[in-house]
Structure formats: C-alpha cells, structure tokens
Amino acid sequence: MSNNQSIVEISQTASQFSSSIVLQAENKYIDVKSILGLFTTLVNSQSYELHVHGPDADEAKKAMIDVFTKHGLNVSVVAE
C-alpha cells in the first residue's frame, strides 16, 4: 500500500486521541501519529499490530481498527 490518503487518514485518526498508539510491523515500532513513520512502514509490511495505551484507549482502538479496515489493512490490537 502506498496510498497517501490512507496514510494521512490513519495518522489524523490517531492524532484525535491522547493515548499512545504504536504500530508494530515485523520488528519495527512506529508512532501512528507520525506520517513519515507510516510512509516507510505501511509500504513494506503485510500485517500489523497496534499497541494502545492511555485514557481514551478503548475509543482509540475502535477508531484505528475502523480506519485500517476501511483501507483494506490487516491489523490486530494487542491486548495488554
């Protein structure tokens, strides 16, 4: 996936929350609020795991799953 719109939308969605939202792709960990980090990661990987911590984590998890699914990305949220 090298769709700029989806990367921007994922980042913007993450930025609405105060929780820390970290994407694990293979051995890399990327702050989902970083558009640059997403550009270098979402292009190469096939499956993703999200680590979400913070006061609005439940809402953030749901929103992130929605936006990843919308763009056809396979993501799972890691239960802590």
UniProtKB/TrEMBL annotation:
Residues 9-69 form the HPr domain. Signal peptide: none annotated. GO terms for molecular function: transferase activity. It comes from the Bacteria. Keywords: Transferase. SUPFAM superfamilies: HPr-like. InterPro entries: HPr-like, HPr-like_sf. Pfam families: PTS-HPr. This is Phosphotransferase system, phosphocarrier protein HPr. It comes from Paenibacillus vortex V453.
